[in-house]
Amino acid sequence: MRVSANPFAFEFELARTALVIIDMQRDFIEPGGFGETLGNDVSRLSSIVPACVRVLAAWRRAGGKVLHTREAHRADLSDCPPAKRQRGQPTLRIGDVGPMGRILVAGEPGNQIIPALAPSPGEWVIDKPGKGMFYATGLHERLQGAGISHLVFMGVTAEVCVQTSMREANDRGYDGLLLEDCTESYFPEFKTATLDMIRAQGAIVGWTAPSADLLAAIGAQ
Q1: What is the DSSP letter of 120?
Q2: What pTM was estimated for this model as a whole?
Q3: pLDDT for the residue numbered 220
Q4: How many CB atoms lie within 10 A of CB 195?
Q5: Which residues carry out catalysis?
Q6: Which of the 8 DSSP states describes residue 119?
Q7: pLDDT tens-digit profile of 87-141?
Q8: Residue 79: phi, psi to the nearest 5?
Q9: 178, 208 in Cβ contact below 8 A?
Q10: Which of 75, 97, 119, 135 could pair with 123 in a Cys bridge, judged by C-beta atoms 3.0 to 4.6 Å apart?
Q11: Contact, 73 vs 129, CB < 8 A?
């Protein structure tokens, strides 16, 4: 398959490609979650949900592999470095009790993926203690075992967990495509900069494209 992408076409085989949905969690997307306690306008992130839903539905119909990530820590926070928990001046910190349970703790209501993008049986769900999806998760070995060589990315936030995961993937030899209207930041200029950095210098990190172009490639339009 071939997607009209930037800086040039992104080519992939569906059987060797996974759709990666980064951290579309209630704590980041919904009012009252961790993202809002940091002073952010969460409506920017929720605006991409309809486009993500369309892509996920089409990818499932096509029979492609899907994996979801959640930024999640153990209940005792043993996998959360103090420097991470203490960073900034939020009204609530990782592990504190918020409106949707303990912030970014596995199993808590706010740590779950939003209902519109909830995983289906058989789809991978990766709980990651860091920003990148490969750190301390064993994901690379799982992808290699499944014969995956290409990754299509959606999710939040563009400049943090999405870009970190794409850079980690690039270092491990994967070709990555970021869907431009399926990622967002609390800061619009950060999203713009992320897209420019990813596709600079001949796709130094990866490719970007509107989701419509991916849907066309998989025959969903």
Answers
A1: P
A2: 0.97
A3: 67
A4: 18
A5: 23, 128, 161
A6: P
A7: 877 778 899 998 899 999 999 999 999 999 999 999 999 999 999 999 999 999 9
A8: -105, 15
A9: yes
A10: 119
A11: yes
Q: Which whole-number Å values give the CA distances from 10 to 149, 180, 196, 203, in the listed order?
A: 13, 14, 16, 10
Both tokens of 135, joined, read 């750190």
Q: Which two tokens stand for residue 204?
A: 């130094």
> What does DSSP say about strands 150-156 and 97-98: parallel, antiparallel, or unpaired?
unpaired
Neighbours of 131 (CB within 10 A): 18
The string of DSSP codes covering 49-116 is HHHHHHHHHHHHHHT-EEEEEEE-B-TT-TTS-HHHHHSS--SS-TTSEEBTEETTBTTSGGGSBPGG
Question: Please, what is the angle between helix 163-171 and helix 188-203, to 10°?
Answer: 20
> What is the C-alpha R_g of the chain?
17
Q: Compute the distance between CA of residue 52 and CA of residue 66 in angstroms, rounded to an integer.
A: 12
Give helix then strand counts, H and E, for the chain.
Answer: 9, 10
| Residue type for position 16 | R
Give the contacts of 112 (CB within 8 A, at least 6 positions apart): 25, 26, 70
204-214 pLDDT, tens per residue? 999 999 999 99
CB atoms within 10 A of CB 30: 19
The pair of structure tokens assigned to 84 is 């991470």
- Single-letter amino acid code for the residue at 121: P
In the block, which residue shows the tokens 């499944």?
A: 146
* Residue 94 to residue 102: CA distance in whole angstroms: 7
Q: Would you say residue 221 has pLDDT above 80? A: no
